[in-house]
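Technical appendix A lists one of the benchmark inputs used to test multi-chain prediction within the project. The record comprises two sequence entries:
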Amino acid sequence: MRNTVAYYEARAAFGFTAVVPALLPPVFGFIALINWLRNGYTPTVNEVMSALAVLLPLSAALSAAHLMVVEREENVDALRRSYAEPTWRLPLIRTVGALLVAGISVGITLLLLRGAGAAFPLDEIVVPAIPATLMMVCLALLAGNVTGNSPAAVVAVIAYWFLDMQTGGKVTGVFFMFNAVSPLQDLDPDLNRLLLYAAAIALCLANIAWSARRRRVGG
Amino acid sequence: MRERFWGAYKLELRQIFRQWSYWLIQAALIAFIVNSFASGGEFYTAQELLWAGASRNVIGLSSLLVLLFGAFGAGRARRNRMDVLEATLPTGAEISLARWAALVTSSLPFMLSALIISLLAGPFESFLRGLPVFLLESTLTLVFTASVVWLIEVTIGIRRWMYPVMALLWVAAIFVTPLSTVPLFAPWAGQWNFTRFGYGGFTDAWGRLAQGDFPWLLNWFYLGMIVLLVGLIVRAADRRRFYKTTGLVRGVVGTGALVAVAGYGMYGLNFMRTIVQTDSPYSATAAEAFFSYPNQPANDPAALSYAITHYQIALDLASQPTFDVAFGVINRGDEPLETIDVTLNENAEILDISTAYSRDGAYINITLNAPLAPDETATVELQYTGDMHTYQYIWGAPPELNTFITRDGILLKQEMYWYPRAGRIPDGMGHQIIDEPAEFSLRVTGTDLPLASNLRTTGENTFESAGTSWATLIGAPLLEIQEPAEGVHLITTAHQYDRLADYLETGFHEVREQVAQYFPAETAIILTHPRWYFTVTPSIYEPVPMVDRAVVISRPPWSANAASSYWFYEQGIYLPVQHFFGDTSMTLLTENVAQFVNLQILHDGDVYMMRTGLEARTTDHHGRPITADEEDELLYASPGFAFNYAITGKLIDVYEAHGTEGVAALLNAMREEAATLKVTVTREVIAWIDSWVAENLADA
């Protein structure tokens, strides 16, 4: 078991650095649970959807910010790059790991929310958060990979998340991440979702390409 | 020791400046701020950008950068496995302090973006006024953040998992401000927003005067925290090296803690003291007092059996503000009138009165010297004093002064009863209840502050109106009254006007001419504060009944974009229409007529485009869905939003058939009947228009 790639990767993906920010949605769920139970209030689908659509992209991205930098920060980067593994494997495994963490975080949150006595339709509360979460995770991984510096990746994702929210899509336009929460008048929601998925794929491919480049030229 | 300090300082600074990411972030921050705040046609003044707006973004984002990149720098030894060596060769506090100082030094250039954008905005005098406070507050935030980072490093050490935690703490600090809406947390939450993101509370006229002691208490708290944190950093380094610390360090820690606790506690106590004085759900008044039905007139002043017919007020500000008030009362009832009730600011201390009276808080029961026969009038003379300090509730921020008289500024609002108002006005309803128009005369002496009012200026610090239901007095060092177009008076500051002048010349003036062809009356716009906009005028949503002129107190438009749309619609079109009809509430009639003029201006009189524009607007409703039956019965609407625009459609028909002259004649006829038409449902107004047009314009 301990000799498998899965074990090594799980240690990176489910380490303290990843788990702490992933607690954000469950903590929200826990506070909400207590608050709602105390006040006998059942939240609306829209309230829960909005909370997840805002929190999940941030927590997932913060959990992923260090994943492409682990080897460099542990000073074993050259060793890892010397292994005979395809260049796409590491970024892809780390992407899957990051998404698994986000998935578990959402799962726990939903269980807690369910404890509040309301059964929420998954497609209405989780699905709207997925495009932005995917994009933010891929952005965090790419930022970490390019800068080789986990605080830089953290700054990149949190600044992007915060400014997108604060400017209400003024800067990001069709890539506005919170369109499900506060829809822009002249933005088609389907197009917005599609573009966020496309951006996530593009960032993921860029991450793979950057890893390949690092294998070739170092850095 | 000094050499070691400078050596470490220069080394750390070099390490930071050598990183390409540092310069990239500088460039990105400047690009973002310049793009966000100077994309053209913005009307922010330099001081506003330095005390609110852009500076809040710059300080907030810089604190994130210092937190994370500072942590990365501070954790370098541990990351490179040098921490054990550092422990075996323990350094004194000078090394930690030198690195801390280098982090602070390298973070200061982040402020450049705010300085650049403010200089670009101008005017320069405004920039100079805003600079010291901006430098103080930005430095306090950055030094505080750097100190937090270094304290963590010298005590428990920076670890990788701390980066996302710090990022989350930063987010939490921003969102702690809305906790100010939770009564239990409110007084003790806002202090922790070290990022300074959020409500700026700035007005060009008064700066932060309305925020009272809160800004300096906050700065006091952070100053104390910095002293405390730096003391703790030195203490940790001392204990690592010498296994003990000095009395001096203990003194610094103690002093810092004392100052921080004092600042924190006084801020919280000040919050608790002032929040109960606000007209808000947190005051002693029952929450239901603040609930009102939209689309309904708030009050019927005609229900009182008496009315105040005139006010003559002499305000002496030479020492303690003293109000000499004479007001006339008329008995409108059928029975003799022996006593009347008036509402006066609770803080006003009555010095003298010409009649017998009793007082219960804000309510004064006056026994007239002789019973007043029906239709008879009497004059009551009253002298009182007080600085009229009252507070208003602000969502997500500490309470703000709502009405005040200070050496640096004056704001007297009708809603806070700075002069006696007829009847017993329930708590929290001062801004919703409209007084009947009365003749008003106000003379102010004993102040050098420039003064302005919604009343006409008739002499030096003398203001009068032939009939007004509200009176506001404003005094501020930079106050100016400008007349950018004939009949339009802007009460503003020199700096604000400087930023607005071009737009007023090219945008406002042209449209004003088109509006004036229907509604030639004088208009005054008082530019003050976004939050006061809703509450300075006598009802919760801006009814402005004055005989002489239309007046509104408004926030300035932030940009030419806003100015060309809603801001202009509201101040430039809606207000004159409201005045034209003598509308004391927001009626559907006013909104429909204003919308017709708006469409005519927007589409240059092209009837097809006006109809298309109207069609788009009818889908732009807000609020809950409304049934067809309800829609048919509506009488009230907000500026720019109505559920029914049938009258606008009818006016377009008239315009198509009879041109501007036809519509002008119709509107003048409607004005004659305004008292009836504004309380008549749409279908009957349309029938009235049809009948009037058939009778008067059929041959045209």
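The mean pLDDT of chain A is 87. Chain A touches chain B through 28 residues (CB under 8 Å). Comparable benchmark entries are summarised in Table A2.
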